[in-house]
Amino acid sequence: MYLGIDVGTSEVKALLLAADHTVIGTAGSTLEVSRPHPGHSEQNPADWWAATQAALAKLKSAHPTEFAATQAIGLSGQMHGAVLLDAANQVLRPAILWNDTRSALECQEMMAELPEAATLAGSLLMPGFTAPKLRWVARHEPALFAQVAKVLLPKDYVRLMLTGEHITDLSDASGTAWLDVAKRAWSPALLALTGMTEAQMPRVVEGSAPGGFLSASVAAQLGLQSGIVVAGGAGDNASSAVGMGAVNAGEGFLSLGTSGVLFVVTPQFAPNAQSATHAFCHAVPARWHQMSVMLSAASCLQWARQALGAASEAALEAQAAALDLAARAEAPLFLPYLSGERTPHNDAVLRGSFHNLSHSTDQAALAYAVIEGVTFGLTDGLNALKKAGSAVTRLALVGGGARSAMWAQQLASSLDVEIVLTAESAAGGALGAARLGWLATGASQDLVCTQPAITHRYQPDPAEKALLAPRYARFAALYPALKALQALQ
Question: 10 exposed, middle or buried (CB, 10 Å; 0-12, 13-18, 19+)?
Answer without folding.
Answer: middle
